Amino acid sequence: MFVRRSTSQKPGFTATGEVTETQVGFDDFWTLYDKTPGLVDDKLKAVLTEARRLLEQTDIRGVIFAYDEAQNLSDHAVAKEYPLSIILDVFAYFQRNRSKCNFMLVLNWAAHSLPKAE
Fold first, then answer.
1. Coil, strand, or helix at residue 98?
2. How much is the pLDDT for 77?
3. CB 54 within 8 A of CB 2
4. Are 52 and 99 in contact, with CB atoms under 8 Å apart?
5. Residue 65 CB coordination number (10 Å)
6. pLDDT digits (tens, 9 = 90+) for 2-48
7. Which long-range contacts (CB under 8 A, 24 or more apart) does 111-118 make?
């Protein structure tokens, strides 16, 4: 759960600003995803950029995204599905664009899926 803070300034020289806090949840991020034009990676970048912007207002220094069973993650050109490329592109984008709150991707491979070294 996030809280979005916005300040509205009233007219006048002696007027004070009014701070409004709004809770931001899954539905808000889903709406942002749906309304963002472009490909899936553009949509994910928009959602994660907004989440990071909100996290920068807190003391949280970063978020670790862990993907278990990553050996099953692969691109399928015939079906025009590229989940591996998308996830790597999105997190590479955030690694290049560092901020107060950074994102890290951890991929976990099952050891039995690696070829044996002889």
1. coil
2. 87
3. yes
4. yes
5. 14
6. 666 666 777 777 777 777 788 889 999 999 999 999 999 999 999 99
7. 113/71
